[in-house]
Amino acid sequence: MLDSLGVRSVRLMTNNPRKIEGLRQLGVDVVGRIPLVMQPNAYNRAYLETKMRKSGHLMADPGLSSYGMTPGAAQGYWRSVEARMREVPGVRNVALTSLPPFGNRVTVNRELTIFYHVTPAFFDTMRIPLTHGRLFRDREADVAIVSETLARRHWPGEDPIGKTYEGRTVIGVSGDARTVRINEGGATECYMPIQPEQLAGAVMVVRVDGAPARAAGTIRAVARGGDERLMPSVVLLEDALEEKLEAPRQLALIASALGCCALLLAVTGLAGMVAFTVSQRLREIGVRVALGARPAHIVRAIARQFTRPIVVGAIAGSALAALAGTVLSREMFGVSQLDPLAHGGALLLFALVAVVAALPSVRRAVRVDPVQMLRHE
To answer: Measured at the alpha carbon of residue 292, what is the angle toward residues 290 and 293, in degrees to the nearest 5?
Structure first.
């Protein structure tokens, strides 16, 4: 598109250096960059905190299961790769997990708790705090670490350590980490030690210092483990997060477009209705003015006729918006079911738009010449 438009240089508004590099590779000169500075607020705080925690991470997936590796061979592969990965300059920590963060694989129970099989280093690698208890030990199997939300839900006001969950003894409590169902604030997680039979389907999470994109090539080479058959995929966790948010962003864009269309229809309909009503009452208004009615009286008389349907429409719209918020909160990141600020702002905007739409017709009514109207009569 840029090439067809003849664009050869741009000033780019972005915080992503990869976009600059991508444009330069396409022959577009980036003459300047405007950074996006977004202050944390009630709507973006969870997203910014999630992005901060996940920056500096990569995922390496060799796809061992597709090569038919046995549990013993997979265990030997991961042991070798993990040791070599820790020797790479800039690598802070590595861990294995059965579920790639922000991926599409998921294991849940009836209450939609997400189950991860991980190595003990997963919590430090992903910067998930252990708020209570301890981490896994070697060769432990029937133990679990649960998230804070899950602990509060099942054992409110109690110490969850030593309790049983899904047949496993709880040994620790971790901070909430929405790495699969990121759009749900009440999502719960349960972590268990990864077992040898699960290693063939595992992926490695690597935390590095500096820009993770620079380490991607080295990490891919190490993940091959000297086996020419393997073609491991290496993905930046930040990119996986952005991809996970793409669908909610598209949904938000569609919802915004539909909202603008609805607002435009409301303005057009309201303006037409007020104009028609005023035109039908011009003679009456002329008589009122002739009898001494002031402009304020004329405005109140017109407004009184439309106040009731507008109020009824606003109430019905608020109820439908609350219903829609329940659905959207499941699909869109950071959207609450009932947001008084958003609902109040929408009502205020609707009232402002109603006033603006009615203003031309009201001004026409106030400026009616009673002599002309009576002469016409």
So the answer is: 100
Does residue 320 lie in a domain region? yes
- Sequence-separated (6 or more) residues with CB below 8 Å from residue 28: 2, 7, 8, 9, 10
Same domain as 225, residue 284: no
- Amino acid at the residue 304: R
The full DSSP string for 58-87 is EEEE--GGGGT--HHHHHHHHHHHHHHHTT
Report, as ranges of residue numbers, the positions in the chain whose pLDDT lies below 50: 52
Would you state the pLDDT for residue 192?
Answer: 94
Report the run of H or E that residue 191 belongs to, with start and end: strand 189-193
Number of domains making up the chain:
3
Which residues on neighbouring strands pair with residue 190, listed in sequence order?
A: 115, 146
Type of residue numbered 306 = F
pLDDT of residue 194: 93
Residue 190 lies inside a defined structural domain of this protein: yes
108 DSSP assignment: B
The reported pLDDT for the residue numbered 127 is: 84
Q: Is residue 116 one of the residues assigned to a domain? A: yes
DSSP-based three-state secondary structure for 104: coil
pTM over 0.90: no
Note the pLDDT of residue 42. Answer: 56
Distances in Å between the Cα of 344 and the Cα atoms of 257, 270, 322 are 20, 20, 12
Asked whether 347 and 253 are in contact (CB, 8 A), the reply is no
